[in-house]
Amino acid sequence: MSSQEQDQATQNLTLVQSVRDALATEMESDDDVLVMGEDVGKNGGVFRATEGLYDEFGEDRVIDTPLAESGIIGTAVGMAAMGLKPVPEIQFSGFMYPGFDQIVSHMARLRTRSRSRYTLPMVLRAPYGGGIRAPEHHSESKEAFYAHEAGLKVVMPSTPYDTKGLLISAIRDPDPVIFLEPKLIYRAFRGEVPEDDYEVPIGEATTRREGSDVSVFTYGAMTRPSLEAAEELAEEGIDAEVVDLRTVSPMDREAIVESFKKTGRACVVHEAPRTGGLAGEITATLQEEALLYQEAPIQRVTGYDVPYPLYALEDYYMPNAARVADGIKEAVDF
Amino acid sequence: MSTLERDPRDGMVQVLDEDGGVVGDVPDLSEEEFVAMYRHMKLARHFDERAVSLQRQGRMGTYPPLSGQEGAQVGSAMALAEDDWMIPSYREHGAAMVRGLSLEQTLLYWMGDERGSLVPEEANVFTPAVPIASQIPHATGMAWADKLQGDGETDTAFICYFGDGATSEGDFHEGLNFAGVFDTPTVFFCNNNQWAISVPRERQTNSETLAQKAVAYGFEGVQIDGMDPLAVYKATTEALEKARNPGEGERRPTLIEAVQYRFGAHTTADDPSVYREEDEVEKWKAKDPIPRLEEFLRNQGILDDERVAEVEESVREAVANAIDAAESTVRPDPGSMFDHVFAEQSPELRRQAEEFAQLREEYGDEAFLEE
Questions:
Q1: Interchain proximity A70–B115, CB inside 8 Å
Q2: CA A113 distance to own-chain centroid
Q3: Catalytic residue selected from A137, A138, A148, A270
Q4: Nearest residue, CB atoms, B174 vs list A70, A116, A151
Q5: Distance (Å) from the C-alpha of residue A204 to the closest C-alpha of chain B?
Q6: Does A67 touch chain B (CB under 8 A)?
Q7: CA distance A175 to chain B (A)
Q8: Which residues contact B369 (CB under 8 A, 6 or more apart)?
Q9: What is the pLDDT along chain A (334 residues), one digit of tens a residue?
Q10: Is B307 a catalytic residue?
Q11: Is B345 on the interface with A (CB under 8 A)?
């Protein structure tokens, strides 16, 4: 923590440490915030996202629950309706399905169903995505399910700074948020993260790399290979702009359209399967909003429409910098 | 001995027998409260009959009838203290009405108007849940929140209603299991009405009773005669009291299995003659909670012909007024469907709302409405 000594105002954190930092920050300032889930207490979470919180805040605010996803999400719905701000953790997003009914039938609908008498200021956190050589059901990227459901916000950060700011925004949001954390990059790198609290607004994209030839639209763990590809192609004279959506619902359509109007070409990158994936939504938006700016077919670099393979083959499934570079070139060479 | 301490397999708790004769300890209710109980039950019955009729006439959408279940609904709801909470399924119009939800709102809801879902602030009633058993974890979470907010203490109890079919769902297990582990002030009230649409209670579980499932969660379960409003009132009162103030070694949650029967269909879209015999219905109709309570109250000198006529008249008037009010309510503003999705509309939702408004402006509402 030498950087912390040099600069009191920031700390150099990994992405998963910034999750913990956001939770601690909000729990410190708001007694209504509590963390619940399997192994989040004494064990500090299987990915250490809640490490030390149990000792700091006690068993009533960092709650080890029975092993039951619907029970965790369903009781959190009840807690949130009563004014608490629960942040339930599901250990892997691939285990959210037993709680799917609670997510779509209640988390998403309670405000509408009660005409706003009840709101659910809850954040459902889960690590998502592949690339860590995990067993079956541990690598899924199913953000499209949740983005398709009215009443939910879906956030997918890509940097430690954004993670803390977005998670704080999510906890303060009066509506329910699904917060999907890219576990591939939980510890891949560090970034400067302010010690104090701050918000990164939900629903706003950010441009990670300015460029003029082609727009790459991505989010979460795929932001890194997208940037890597952009840097590689810069050497070949292709100047790619990389837009990190950060929130996939509500999506920052304006930022997407503006970037596309500038470049006229686009490559959308996500690790989720292609059919029904958000690349289709982004492409449709560009067709509606910026057709006359379009210089080439919009490329999709995505996971395939196959059940997520066991890890011997996952490198072939997940988009990487090479595949992104290929997609970008397809868009540029048309 | 407390009603709740019985072995859940020892048979049903009863206060009134099928003819309204006293077979147990009569709960301590005032004359007015007894009459109120009777009136609520008569109101629920008449409301139900009129609601089914409205549906048959095409004046209302699909509706889930409650006839036969008035004793369980009214008896339990009247046991609640003012600050207690009710978490209903979709059939508890009678119970919700006791807690202050107007008949007009219930009608609006089943007439497809979202405004029927807006429970007034003063009524501690959660909005009804349709997916079976899904409200059970909510009730646990709400009660748990209350206990956490009171640093382990609470003076509020939470009653959650569900049917026999719900006990087969994972959410029943998860909700009760959490309640047991975290000792939440929740009363789980199972309206065992014998049929989950067409599937009988025997096909839901091989357990001898539903009440005994509480044993698995580490708290008390009791089986009561759900068509005996006084037994319902008594057991629910004890369970609510224990939720708020458990004695030494007691656990707050309770599972009550109220054994009863749904006289009518599961919903108006269902035809029960396909799956059950008329003899069975007749057998249960002999246990009807309303004449049972009426007989008891007549024997006590609390009701006479005149008072019964008065109650019937006031019930007819209340339901007629509610129907008039619901039917004369102007349809909801179509644009309101965009209003309660988020605290603040997203840009895309705003765009869709504007697009919708423009379409209505251009083509008129006639273009949207079915002939």
A1: no
A2: 27
A3: A138
A4: A70
A5: 11
A6: no
A7: 6
A8: none
A9: 444 445 569 999 999 999 999 999 999 999 999 999 999 999 999 999 999 999 999 999 999 999 999 999 999 999 999 999 999 999 999 999 999 999 999 999 999 999 999 999 999 999 999 999 999 999 999 999 999 999 999 999 999 999 999 999 999 999 999 999 999 999 999 999 999 999 999 999 999 999 999 999 999 999 999 999 999 999 999 999 999 999 999 999 999 999 999 999 999 999 999 999 999 999 999 999 999 999 999 999 999 999 999 999 999 999 999 999 999 999 999 9
A10: no
A11: no
Judge whether A236 is closer than 8 Å to chain B, CB to CB.
no
Q: Which residue in the list B46, B50, B252, B266 is annotated as catalytic? A: B266
Q: How many CB pairs under 8 A join A and B?
A: 136
Q: Is B217 a catalytic residue?
A: no
Tell me what the pLDDT averaged over chain B comes to: 96
Please name the member of A75, A111, A118 whose beta carbon is closest to the beta carbon of B140: A75
Give the span between the Cα atoms of B177 and A102, in whole angstroms: 17
Q: Which amino acid, one-letter code, is at A13?
A: L
Does A289 contact chain B (CB < 8 Å)? Answer: no
Residue of B130, B343, B347 with shortest CB distance to A253: B347
Instruction: Please say whether the beta carbons of B202 and B45 come within 8 A.
Output: no
Helix B70-77 vs helix B289-299: angle between axes, to the nearest 10 degrees?
60
Q: For chain B, what's the residue count? A: 371
| Separation in Å, CA B181 to CA A59, A108, B150, B245 | 13, 27, 18, 17
Residue B35 tokens read as 């009459």
- For chain A, the residue count is 334
Contact A250 B141 (CB under 8 A): no
Is B314 near chain A, with CB under 8 Å?
A: no
CA B130/CA B127 separation, integer angstroms: 10
Q: Which residues of A touch B114 (CB under 8 A)?
A: 112, 115
Is the four-CA dihedral A129, A92, A13, A188 of positive or negative sign? negative
pTM, whole model, 2 decimals? 0.95
Instruction: Give the strand pairing for A191-194 and A10-13.
Output: antiparallel
**Which strands, in side-by-side order, build the sheet including B186-192?**
B85-87, B158-163, B186-192, B254-259, B220-225
For residue B365 the two structure tokens come to 């509402």
DSSP A105: I
Contact B347 A250 (CB under 8 A): yes
Catalytic site residue A138? yes
What are the residue ranges of helices labelled H in chain A? Answer: 2-6, 15-29, 53-57, 69-81, 100-101, 110-113, 143-147, 160-172, 223-234, 253-263, 278-290, 314-317, 321-333
Mean pLDDT value of segment B158-183: 98
| DSSP letter string, A280-330 | HHHHHHHHHHHGGG--SPPEEEEE-SSPPPPGGGHHHHS--HHHHHHHHHH
Could you tell me which of A251, A260, A319 has the C-alpha nearest to residue A286? A260
**Could you report the per-residue pLDDT of B284-331, keeping only the tens digit for each?**
999 999 999 999 999 999 999 999 999 999 999 999 999 999 999 999
**pLDDT (0 to 100) of residue B1:** 58
| Helix B70-77 and helix B229-244, axial crossing angle in degrees, nearest 10 | 40
Integer CA distances (angstroms), A36 to A19, A42, A163, A212, B253, in order: 14, 12, 19, 45, 21
- Predicted pLDDT at B57: 97
Six-digit token string for A183: 């576990």
